[in-house]
Amino acid sequence: MASKIPISVQTILSEYISLFHERIPNTLEGLYLHGSIALNAYINGSSDIDFIAIVNSDLTEKEVKVLSNIHRELKNKYKKTGMDGCYLLWEDIGKKQTETKKCLYVNEGKVGRSNHVINPITWWILRDKGISIIGPEIKSFHFDVNESDLVDYVLNNMNTYWLNRLNTIERFKRIAFLFPNNLVEREVQWSITGILRQFYTLRERGIISKVDAGKYALNYIPESWHAIIKEAISIREGLNIRYCDSKKQRINDTIQCMKYIINYCNKMYKK
User: Which regions span the lipid bilayer (predicted)?
Assistant: First the structure.
């Protein structure tokens, strides 16, 4: 496997491939990595293994159950590292979400059906920095994605998923002091670094890791939000350094920082 793939990930992938070939033979024809591994930003114990798997035909109900068991076994064995991806046919690679039917996807060891993984961000990273494990080189594929698609998708995501998440945090802020610290910190790092990666994409028309997006934002976001951004980066990297004085400050700064970013991006980039 490619040298940029961490040894711990290579171990999981080798076992996954072996189990797949053994239990659903003559079916898996392609396996490609995107996400943090492709961006050279994988954090052991924090990052997922983001993948696109190519099968040569739609899986039967029996095969889906077998596949579900494979992922459940791997999740139980490697508790800190999840596989997050989907199963496509060759003709699905690079297509727009509206042109594909719901596909099998896996997250946290559970298998379901959705086409949310088929989006401009996935194709952009796969096209530019993806890693081939099984199958033809990625450069041989056509990806139907451009800057306009990327910007439209990110703005929509910001005003749906991230806005909804912001509203949820705001609803619960009065009782946030009752939540365990690890739950609050998980929300801080997920929401702040996640929305800052969207901020970077809208400004630069590219995609980088969440940590790098946080460091980038420190050069452009008002200083009043630097503490919460630095704290989110520290949590993401598994460090014990904290920049906020209290749980209340973490929650309030997360809310206000997210509001600032959403308002700024809508003002600057919304048509």
Answer: none
Any idea what the Cα angle at residue 135 is, between residues 132 and 140, rounded to 5°?
80
Each domain of the chain, given as residue ranges in start order, spans 7-140, 147-269
Query: Average per-residue pLDDT in the chain?
Result: 93
Domain 7-140, what architecture? Answer: 2-Layer Sandwich (3.30)
Is the distance from CB of 148 to CB of 180 less than 8 angstroms? Answer: no
Cβ contacts of 200 within 8 Å, gap of 6 or more: 206, 207, 208, 212, 213, 216, 217
The confidence score (pLDDT) of residue 4 equals 81
pLDDT score of 1: 67
Residue 3 has pLDDT above 80, yes or no: no
| C-alpha closest to that of 88 among 31, 146, 25 | 31
The vertex-36 CA angle with 35 and 40, nearest 5°, equals 125
Cα first-last separation, the chain: 43
Total length of the chain: 271
The percentage of the chain sitting over the pLDDT mark of 70, rounded to a whole number, equals 100
Higher local confidence (pLDDT), 151 or 97: 151
The pLDDT tens digits for 173-218 are: 888 778 888 899 999 999 999 999 999 999 999 999 999 999 999 9
The amino acid occupying position 46 is S
- CB atoms < 10 A from the CB of 233, how many? 24
